From TrEMBL:
Catalyzes the transfer of the alpha-amino group from S-adenosyl-L-methionine (SAM) to 7-keto-8-aminopelargonic acid (KAPA) to form 7,8-diaminopelargonic acid (DAPA). It is the only aminotransferase known to utilize SAM as an amino donor. GO terms for molecular function: adenosylmethionine-8-amino-7-oxononanoate transaminase activity; pyridoxal phosphate binding. It comes from Glutamicibacter uratoxydans (Arthrobacter uratoxydans). GO terms for cellular component: cytoplasm. Substrate binds at residues 58, 151, 290, 326, 420. It is found in: Cytoplasm. It is an enzyme of class 2 (transferase). This is Adenosylmethionine-8-amino-7-oxononanoate aminotransferase. The gene is bioA.
Amino acid sequence: MKTAAESLLDRDAGLLWHPYASLDSGALYAVAQAQGAELLLQDAHGGEHRVVDGMASWWSMVHGYCNPALDAAAHAQIEKFSHVMFGGLTHQPAVELAERLVAMAPPSLRHVFLADSGSISVEVALKLALQYQDAKGRPERQRFLALRGGYHGDTFAAMSVCDPVDGMHSAFAPLCSQQVFAPRPPAAEHTVGGDWLYDEEELEIWEAQTRRLAAEHAGSLAGIIAEPVLQGAGGMFIYPPRVLRVLREIADEHALLLIADEIATGFGRTGKLFAVQHAGIEPDIMCVGKALTGGYLSLAAMLCIAGVAQALRTGTGSAPSALLHGPTFMGNPLACAIACASLDLLTGSGGAGIEPAQAPWQVQVARLERGLRSSLAPARALDAVREVRVLGGVGVIALHEPAGVAQLSAAAVERGAWVRPFRNLVYVMPPYICTDAQLQQLGAAMTGAVNQVYGG
C-alpha cells in the first residue's frame, strides 16, 4: 500500500505545473508540517525529513511558519471580513499599512498602490512612469533602461525589463516591448567591516557605457529600473552601491524616473531596511513584496514620490489622471492586516511607528550574516566551488558548472536543509528567526551536498 506522501506525489505528477518546471517534473517532496524555520518533508518512499527551510518560501517567510503574532492578526481580521472591493471603499488594514510603509520608506516616497504580487507591482510602476511622462508632455517616452542580469517578474511588461538574453524569458522576446539594456555592473564583495570591494576601472568603464547609452536613447526613455545592490533571480549577483548613485544621476539628467525593485531586497534582507540605503539615494518609485506579509499571503506595494502623483493630477497629456490598474484583490484586508503585524515584528514598533535603537530585523539579519559567513566558509575549499558570497541574509555557493537541482536538493535534505539551486548556484535566503545552530546546519548541508554531488 502506498504511503500518504507517495500517493500525494503521484496525484501531483502530471496534474500540477510547478514553477519553472515541465508538467512531468512533479514535486520532490510533500510538506507534512511547517513550524518556525523548519519543514517536515515526506518522500515517495515513506521517509520523513525535518529540515531548515533555507528558501524561506522563496525569500518571504522571514518570521517563520505558524508565527503567533501573524496567526493572531489573521484570525482577528477574518472574524471581521476577509475581503472587500477597494473600488470606492477603504478599510483600516489598508490605510494603516500604507501609513506604515510611508513611515518606513525613504522620506520622499509618499503615496502607495497596493498590488497582489511583486510582478504586478512592477507592472504598475512601469504604467505609472509612462503616464507620468505623458502628463509632462513627453508621450513619446515609452521605453525603459534596465540592467543586464536583472529579473523583475513573469508578467509581460515585467518580462520586458528582465535580461533579454540570459534571463529565463528569452523565449517570449518577440512578444515583449523592446527596452534598452545597460551592461551588467561589475561584481562587488561586501566585507565583514562593511566595505565594498570592486574593480574601480571596471566600474568606470560601466559608468561611461551606461551614461552614453542613456544619452543616446533619452528621448524615448520613461525611466530606469534596477534591483538595488543584489540581482536576485538573475544570479544572486552583488554589485557596488555606487552603481545606484550613477543611475540616480542619469535619471535626473534626462528627466527619467528611477524605479527600485526592492521586492527581494526590501525589509532588511541585504543588511539595510531597503537596499537603496546602501547608496544613500532615494528612488522615484519603489516596489516591495515577498517579506511584506511575512510569507503568509501574496501582497505587494508600489510607492512613489509626491511629484509623480501630482503630475498625473495636473498633467496636460492624453492619459487620464487615474492610475490605470485595479486588481480584484487590491488592498485585501486579510493580507494588509497580516502585513501590519509583520512590519511590527520587523521594527519592534508595536504599531507606534517608532523603531527602537536597534530594530529586531537589524539584530536578526546581522546574526544571519555572521552565521552564513561562518558556515559557508568551508565550501571555499571545494574544487567544484568558484566562489562564496554573503550579503546580509543571503548566502551563495557559486559552482563552476550548472547545478544539478534534484541531486543537490536531495543531498541537502539528507543533511537537514531544504534548498532549491538554480543556474550554477546553491544559495539560501533563510528566515530571519533562524538560530545559530540552524545556520550552521544550513551551511554544512550545502557544503556537504556540493561535495557529495561534485566531489571535493
